[in-house]
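pls ignore typos typing on phone
FHN + seq
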Amino acid sequence: MTAALFSFQEPNIRSQDERLDWWRNERFGMFIHWGLYAVPAGEWADKGAGHAEWIRTTAQIPLETYDEFIHEFNPVKFDADEWCAMAKDAGMGYVVITSKHHDGFCLFESEHTDFDIMNTPFQRDIMKELAEAAPKHDVKMCWYHSIMDWHHPDYLPRRGWEEDRSSEGADMDRFREYLHAQVEELLTNYGPIGIMWFDGEWESTWRGEYGKKLYELCREVQPNVIVNNRLGARGGMAGLTGMDGYAGGYAGDYATPEQEIPDAVEKGLDWETCMTMNDRWGYNAVDKNFKSTTDLLQKLSDIVSKNGNFLLNVGPKADGTFPDESIQRLSEIGDWMDVNGEAIKGTIGSPFKDLEWGRATQKFNGDDTTLYLHVFDWPEDGTLEVSGLSGNITSARVLGIDGSVEFKQNEGEVVVQVPSEKPNEHIGVVAVEFKAKPVVYEEPTITSQTTQFVHEAIVNMSVGSPDIEIRFAIINNHNTSELIVPNERYTEPLVIDESCTVIAQSYFEGKPVFKAASLKLEKVTPKQATQVSLVIEGALKMSVYSGDWDEMPNFDTMKADAVEYVGAISPKPEAELQGRLFEGYIKVDKDDMYIFALTSDDGSNLYVHDELIIDNDGLHGPQQMNGSIALSKGWHPIRVEWFNKTGGATLNLRVETLGGELHDVDASMIAR
Ligand code: FHN
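k done
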């Protein structure tokens, strides 16, 4: 048993901002997926060579066969210092490693299981060695930990294909005790941990309230640890915690888009995209589809320009070394960061909505600001035009080139004269120094929860620059076609109760700058309720079908295997290669605009009055899609279609009215 590595007294409990400060400043971390799955390196018997960390499931390897890998895992070339040094040299300020992935194998010594590193030929606590090395390289050590556990006898559900592995006696309450006990080990025995990075939270046996308890445990053991949002549900691969109400979900400290970079992120949201360098998380010997260093750096720049963090993955080999391709990219990224890292570390997002030639970040120095222009497409003639930019510029320089460069300012435009040759092969960065803050002329962003409403709509407006004033006007349908100048100062959200078009324009020093933006809002009549006499409340008709689909089949042309009456729209009892059709009525208690959130793994559709309100079709992990419809008080026909291929199964329908709270569509609202 690892004695507590460090006898450290937890510093005073910091505020959310103080706790996240180091993480927000770092912007860039290393993800490491490593475990027994590195031994087969993606290949298994007649199941091909396309597997990785999911190989026990995707190659349907029986438990006792998979467990044999524990006798082969002997990463004699593992060197914690070398790993931490590579992360640091690449400009990564934190390392998140899989303490336990879905296969249940623990890379650390645990007194709660023998399925751990100490029972391999290696017999060294990987996490202990990393926890000791990390501070020496000024890197924060962080633990990934999977809730889903395909090894532990108490974890349910079993894999659908594990017919011969009984779930007799399995006890999820006891499993959650095991989970808590191991999390306690991870946060007690290895010193200060930066992040608890949970995963595998999407199966039906996990509920949001368990996630909340797990979050509270982490904060109790290490009050300043950061915890991600994969505790209750994460809004599918988009990961933007759109489901904090889902199954009592818990939002954690930051959102976790996976393998994707959001186009836009709501102001103030903390988020981190995690991404593979090739196509897999765990090591696969034949997966050579590595992203170029330029592509990886442009992803880093894009993410940071949107106030996000980038967690870039390495899948080490069974011998304890990184793949050569990963080492090469880390080294090239490090070379770029050595010269341009100031445009990433400690910066906040761009003041621009978008830039056609690249991205931007900014760093506040007291009252003044450095604006970093990340130029993907370097101007061959050396003339870099930045439209919509104003403010008091004191100097400009190209990172990596001594001296300053010339610049000119016209009304709402800055032209920087840079060398015609790009300063490096990836991204050239121009640093522009401002007294105070840059002023960006752009059209305001006008948002409303829906553009149709029954009673009223709330309209918010924003711009990137704090020095820009927003002025607006409301054009009602009866307004003449005369030119309406937006001249009313925007100070707080608008309440709209008639169909109209809202226009808004940016003003600087009393003058309109940039073109106006507009948003059309429509007051609609709610759909009439269906006159139903003999409804049986509290249940829907559920027709069950068998099939192997990649997209929604047409259930109307199929014969159901079974028909039942159920009190919830649910994936339980879980089954693979199955489709379900829920039909009946939903009751709403007032005339209003109703916003539905349909979450499923795999595909699903929602119809109300035979109108397709949500199309969430396709093969995907837990994914939430929203749709809205205006309904009168009373009963309305509803149809939910869902199919599950293999693996996790999720299905959840929630509803809210404008400005309300999302809640499950439950038995109190349904009838057949
Ligand atoms: O199933 C895992 C997957 O193996 C990998 O660990 C990723 C990394 O975020 N998380 C889950 C899929 O969302």
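The domain at 445-523 is CATH 2.60.40 (Immunoglobulin-like). The CA atoms of residues 470 and 506 lie 5 Å apart. more later
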